[in-house]
Amino acid sequence: MRKPKKQKKPLNDLSRSLIPFDPNQTLTAVVELSKKAWLVAGIIPGVERQPLKKLAADENELLKLLERWRAEAEKAGHKITRIAVAFETGRDGFWLARWLRARGIEAHVIHAASVAVSREHRRAKTDRLDTEQLKRAFLGWLRGEREHCKMAAIPTVAEEDAKRPHRERETLVGEHTTIVNRVKATLARLGVRNFNPKLKKAPERLEHLRTPEGEPISPNTLAELQRDLARKQLVAEQIGQIEKARLEQLKQAPKAGANLMVLVLVRVIGIGIETADMLVKEILSRNLRDRRAVARYGGLTGSPDESGSQRREKGLARSGNARVRKGMIQLAWRFLEFQKESALAKWFRARTENNRGSRKKMILALARKLLIALWHFVRDGVVPEGVVLRPAH
Known about the structure:
Blueprint: E1 26-33, E2 37-43, E3 52-56, H1 59-75, E4 82-88, H2 95-101, E5 106-110, H3 127-142, H4 157-189, H5 202-206, H6 219-252, H7 257-266, H8 273-284, H9 291-297, E6 302-307, E7 310-316, H10 322-338, H11 343-352, H12 359-380
Parallel strand pairs: 1-4, 4-5
Antiparallel strand pairs: 1-2, 2-3, 6-7
């Protein structure tokens, strides 16, 4: 096994700011976003009041407000050299941060779950109070102090767009399963249990079905089932289009960054194109600091609860990427079947052969170890011990 290479790309420590903070030359603002209106709170150097302004959900109005606050600070004798704006992650995504950065404004997106809040049973919660909490957390982050809040890495438009195909496919597969289950449930109410709606000729066979009483399916129910099967066929065609487009992309640019990582990962027996594409686009192509960061982002770390002499484990923290966590748990079970002679599979069997009840808990540990091993494999070329690879094309 080769030794992992040193990380070449500079790492951005998103738990604190690495830029020196000068409060006399920095205009600081936080934005509480909503669908119709934005609430902007600012800290203006040289101005005693801390303004709070409600705007329509318009990025140009926000830019005008920041420029007006800059003018107020310069009027008070403070030359503004840095404008720092932050808002929480949410339905608006990252477009506003990219838009502000393109106009010379330092924009950050705060992980909403990383901001400490009061633990009172019925705490007051308003947009105004939320902006106060965001200001305190953001100022601590700007000063370079840890644990005030954590920032999200802002992806490019291309990086976000690359995730759309496998996420759309995941949604379509869920819709396909829902339709199949609905057809089966409808037929089960009529006593029909020998019909497979997944077959290509299912729509043709539907008209010839008979209930246990020998009666044909009633007209309204038959029309409903036909519409469901037509919808299922449409969803299946769309899934096929996504998979075909992905294979074409891999053929046209096999040595592009993400595509090359997918083709390298697919060499591991037991990993298919869909799993490899999801892992690369969701986690393996990210610039993560170390193996602990990989496991944490994958949502495969524990949540210990320790107080005095009490020691217990509350289970998975589930604070990372849900798609990666779900996919890795499924891959871990599959890995045991296809890579039985690997060191990881032997490690799992050694710890569960005398205690079969621990398999579900240990599969999480295997998923975490496997994710870290695959990260080293695509990043450094370190093949996991005992893993069998397909021939390279």
